[in-house]
Amino acid sequence: MSRATDEGADTRTRLLRAAEELFAERGSEAVSLREIGRAAGARNVIAAQYWFTDRDGLVQALLDRHLADIEQRRHAMLDAFEAGPHAAAVAGGPGADEAVHALAAALVEPLAAKLDEGAPGAGYLRTVADLLTRPVPSTAPLALDRPGASTARWRALLEPLLEPEALELHRRFLAIRFVAVEVAQRARSGRDDHRLFVSQLVDAAAGLLGATVSARTRELREQRRSAPR
């Protein structure tokens, strides 16, 4: 690899690290590409545009830096789930609550591992939360439904465990967004022992996923479905 290539790769890495630190502090929506370039010590004020084209390209590159680790952790947990005693459980049947709890852990724990990575992990977590809490959530950069993605596999394993109405009302997406926001908030807390937080968040996510769809919710759902469009 040539010296110029080495320097270019180093510049790109420094830009991503600067973005992670600034996003961790202020959120991914409040930081300009020029600020990232300055924080990275780039000599060219448009260095971020050169390497990533635009903000979306930089955000995608930041997400991709962490994706392999998240995917490996979650797939390993899903492998263990499928090999375990609750893989054949169905909604309302024996072992369903335990199965939902195990899958809630597979959602939470790979993300929560980023809490131990300092500013890079915090920047990643806040970026994910920012994308999911936009007025129209931006899920494409996160590849939630990409074939082979751990989240797509997670969603499929949850399907037989949830009531049909819960699936129709996007209960799985609500859990994903809830967990992302809570973990991103935790990253800003300055605390370093996350064991109780993670365990409690798994419990809360399992409760959200497995909560019974009430008669009132069913009624309102039917009203919406039958209303003229």
Would you mind describing this structure in some detail?
There is one protein chain. This protein has 229 residues and is an all-alpha fold. The chain folds into two domains: 1-53, Orthogonal Bundle (Arc Repressor Mutant, subunit A), CATH 1.10.10; 62-226. Helix 9 runs antiparallel to helix 10 (195-210). It is 69% helix and 0% strand. GO terms for molecular function: DNA binding.
Give a short overview.
This protein has helices spanning 3-26, 33-39, 47-52, 55-83, 96-112, 118-132, 150-158, 164-168, 171-187, 195-210, 215-226.
Which short descriptors sum up this protein?
229 residues; mainly alpha; Arc Repressor Mutant, subunit A; 2 domains; 11 helices; globular; disordered N terminus; DNA binding; Regulatory protein TetR; Homeodomain-like_sf; DNA-binding; HTH_TetR
Major beta-sheet overview: none
Helix content: 55-70%
Task: Please compute the radius of gyration using only Cα atoms.
Answer: 20 Å
Q: Helix/strand/pairing class, anyone? A: mainly alpha
Low-confidence parts? 1-7
Mean pLDDT: 92
Distance between the termini: 60 Å
* Strand coverage percent: under 5%
- How many strands in all? 0
List the secondary-structure elements in sequence, H or E.
HHHHHHHHHHH
Globular, elongated, flat, extended or rod-shaped: what is the shape?
A: globular
Tally of discrete structural domains = 2
Total helices: the number is: 11
Protein name: Regulatory protein TetR
Keywords: DNA-binding
Domain HTH tetR-type: 15-42
GO molecular function: DNA binding
